[in-house]
Amino acid sequence: MSPVQADFAKYERALRRYFQIPAAERKTKDRERILMALGVENPQEFLWMHIPLWEAKVDELLDPTSTDMLPISISHSYVNWVRGAIRMMPNPARVKIFTSKLKTTGLKKAVLSLLSNMVKNGPRDFDVLDVELVEKVHKDTLFTVKDSGGRKHQIYLSRFGCLGEYIHAGLPGLVGLPALPVVYHLSPQGEEVLLKPKEEGINIYLDEEIPVSRILGDGDWWVVGAARQDALGDCIGTALRYGHYVATPEKQIVMIDNIELFHLEETDVRIFEPIHEFLPKRAYPDDGTKRSALQNRMQRLYDQAYEDQLGILAAEWGEIERYLIEMRRHVRTYTGEVFETVLAKIKARVFAQQ
After folding, report:
1. What letters, b where the CB count within 10 A reaches 16 and e where it falls short, cover 219-228?
2. Which class for 309: exposed (0-12), middle (13-18), buried (19 or more C-beta within 10 A)?
3. Distance of CA 11 to the CA centre of its chain
4. Which of 11-15, 47-51, 123-127 shows the lowest per-residue confidence on average (mean pLDDT)?
5. Which of 86, 215, 242, 295 is 20 to 30 A from 131 via CA?
6. Closest residue by Cα to residue 111 from 157, 171, 174, 59
7. Domains (ranges, CATH) in the chain?
8. How confident is the model at residue 139, as a pLDDT?
9. What is the widest separation between alpha-carbon atoms in the chain?
10. pLDDT tens-place string over residues 37-61
């Protein structure tokens, strides 16, 4: 057993003893001892944070039956305080906390399942190297693992919008579009989480340092890839797109964080600026002539790719329908509507322009 493994085993024993104490009987001294076992140098100072019910939040954080590394709602007024306090912990402490949650919650099998979809010859095991709390609505924990083959991977754990993203993830591949793998996991304790790899590449809308030369050099395939994703998105009613297009090193456009689906009414609001308008504005903010010429060219590329993809969607409708029927329970849970009604609306959109 390595020193790291021995240290973690010691922490797990201390954790079991700690949670054998009834919640109402746990004292500050008990919490100080478990924090010292974690490697928090000044547990008294950590526990004296001016956060309401902070000691109870610490218990929630340490709970090995919970997947949560941020024991507070992201909409709570104190969320940044809680996130900041946990970030102040040394990284080895966060790693121990997260690792202690893997078996009981079933997260270990879920991570291995994701890794098997990410790399050839999926690993048999992994070690957690780093755990970060991130300030994103769709993702709250970013952790780094080293698999049994020595490869490192960065993975997001999300607790928000999991079902929508899970449903969406199976659709692009049916119609020839790229997508990042995801794993949806419902823990034995009833917690819903989604695991997904950290995306690599350029976020076309949000990355502010994209040079004009890159837009002019790669913009055409960005537009074509986005158009094809938009054709699928329009048919299944994705609502959020600004900041959701990523251009990968493999020269593919993938959509990330697809948490809003089935907005299929004409009155439904979509947060969307067409890429063939956005990129020319970025490239030529002060030159209307060049901007207009680039926009016209990009719109022609967009329209052609969009139309081509609609044809593929129609041709592959049988596969799309079969997949959605397999996911009918999730679709019904997600929408709160009769599944057949949702399916009919999607089909109508797929064939509307054929």
Report:
1. bbebbbbbbb
2. buried
3. 30
4. 47-51
5. 242
6. 157
7. 3-157 (no CATH), 202-351 (1.10.1070)
8. 60
9. 73
10. 999 989 999 998 888 889 999 999 9
